[in-house]
Amino acid sequence: MHHKIISPALLLAVVLPAAELAAQTVFRLGTEKRVCPEYGTVSEGHILLVDRTQFHFQAPTGWQMSADNVQQRIAFSDPGLTSYLALRVQLDATNVVAEPWTETNVTALVALRFANAKISTVYACYGMGTRGVAVEFEFTDSVNRRSHGRLAALNFTGGKMEITAVSCGDWPRTHVEYNAFLNSLRMEVMPPKKEEN
Prior knowledge:
Elements: E1 3-6, E2 12-15, H1 18-21, E3 26-36, E4 41-50, E5 53-57, E6 64-68, E7 73-77, E8 83-91, H2 103-113, E9 118-127, E10 130-140, E11 146-156, E12 159-167, H3 171-184, E13 186-189
Antiparallel strand pairs: 1-3, 2-3, 3-4, 4-5, 5-13, 6-7, 7-8, 8-12, 9-10, 10-11, 11-12
C-alpha cells in the first residue's frame, strides 16, 4: 500500500488576476511524496492544482520547471536548453467543454503555434484514461534550428489539456520523457469546501 504525503511548502503558489478570481480559478504547483512501507521506498511527485482539480505527475528528472499562471501552463526545460515539455490545462466549470479537441482543431493549433510546421503524423493518444489526438511535426525555430515537435490534446470531464514536446537536439530522449510524463498523469477532483455555519 502506498501512502501519500503532500508537502505543506508549495514550490509555486500563484493566483490569477482579480477578474478571473471571480470565477474561482486558482493555479498552484506543489510536491508530494509517496511512501511504500513494504519496500521502504519514497518517491517524489508533483501536484498541479487548477481550481478544485488536482493533476498528479512525475516531472522529467533534472529538468527545470516553471509556471505561467495567466496561461495556466507549466513547462520543463532540459539542462542544455535544447528540449522542453509543457502542459496547459483549460477547465470549464459547466463540465461541458465548449470546443473539445478534434483532429481538425489540434492540427490548426499546431499551425498557429509553429508557423512553418510540417505535420508528419496525426494519431490517437491516451492519457488519464481518456483518448486524445496527437500531432507529430517538424519546424525551423527562431534561430534557424531544425526541430522536432509533438502536441497531444486530451479531453476530460470538465476541461481539456495540451501536452507539447519540442526538441532541436536529442529528440529520442525527449520522446522518452514525454511518454513517462503522459503515463504518470492522473486527475483527481476535490470535493467543494463545506460552508461554515
